[in-house]
Specification:
A three-stranded antiparallel sheet has the order 1-3-2, covered by helices on one side. β9 and β10 form a beta hairpin. It has 411 residues and is of the alpha+beta class. It is 39% helix and 12% strand. It has three domains: 7-265, no CATH class; 276-316, no CATH class; 338-410, no CATH class. It has helices at 19-35, 69-72, 78-96, 109-116, 158-176, 199-208, 263-266, 279-283, 298-316, 329-356, 369-385, 390-398; strands at 7-10, 43-47, 58-62, 67-68, 105-108, 122-124, 127-133, 224-227, 236-240, 247-252, 259-262. α5 runs antiparallel to α6. It has twelve helices and eleven strands. It comes from Gloeophyllum trabeum (strain ATCC 11539 / FP-39264 / Madison 617). This is Aminoglycoside phosphotransferase domain-containing protein.
Length: 411
Amino acid sequence: MLDGFEMVVRIPYPVTVPKLYAVASEVATMCFLRSRGLPISQVYSYSPLPDNPAQTEYIFMEYVRGTNLSDVWFDLEERDIVSVLRQLVQLESRMMSIPFPAGGSLYYSHDLEEVTGGKSGTLLGGDERFCISLDARVHMWYRRRSQLEVDRGPYTTVEQALAAPARKELAYLAHFGRPLPPFQRERRELYEHKPQPPSDHAVNLERYLLAPSLVPANTVTHQFCIRHPDLQPGNIIILRSRDTNELRIESLLDWQHAAILPLFLHANIPGSMQNYDDPSSQLLVPPSLPANTGEQDEEAKGLYHRWLIHFHYWQLWEGGAPCPIVFEAEDVRTTNELAERLQLADENYEGVQRIVGFGAETWVPSKRYKMARDLAELLKLKVLMQIPEEEVRDKFDANWFLNDMDKTEYM
């Protein structure tokens, strides 16, 4: 602007669902957590409906000065990485210590009353400007699921929060389910390229609905709490202090689709910070004492001992409650065999992914698109040349997982 003032204007993508609830919930979540002292941009104005001159939903918010963590993450020294992670853990601890009376997503009460005709959800006892209502997570709404009249909250019990996604999916299968080839085309060969009925998935969902057996016994983990929906470096703004030269987190961005859930459903390491692929993690290599054990102080020895106990705790674990479902031995055998073949197909997919360099849903940066596309075609041709049978070759070509795909029938 002419006076030097800067702000961010955020509008939803055309494919964003549900637009109204996603925008309204993001605004309320940001404002509520900011009022609790968390580093979150100030919201200046917003519209969860497109009934405005811009004809789109929007959020006007504070522009936070600093550096996006994703721009420097791999160049940081170890002390800076440790500092940022420690701050993240502290922020998450503060955030997830805020108790909520129900599950779902957070809204301003007046927003919900305007669009639902007076229904405001479960009010927050300490601040009735806010309420908890419909779960705005993508999987509760995407594709034709947005057409369903199903339970999306507010969730008043842990069991309800566990069961709602499965009941939604069962309703989707009942309304729209029909035999289709597997969506993941690299797996189709294992099913002889035949359409698969939705009934198997429905049976598994019915088994999952034995939700009481899935609830942890420790009631502390039943508390409804909120967590950032996509905690990755691209959503973290940092700034280095001129006085101490220490990095500090200035803001956490992108609160769209945030959900309030039982603590145990939020318990995980953010995907971008999880370590899956190194041999030590995969093989669970036991910790070993260093050569200078005798020179270590008691604190260092104690740290190693706790590490060792943590590594081996599974050997002492007595397990949970008995499985409430009995499976036939033949069913277990065939399922395990299929799982092994599916794992091999997934590994082949991951091998091509590493060579071509694409991300989730075969996404690549626009500047690398042509090169990645050409490389994918070359790989396909090499495989086709090694298949002697014409019929098998044609099926492979038609189901190559990097071909363009019409997803309409899966929507």
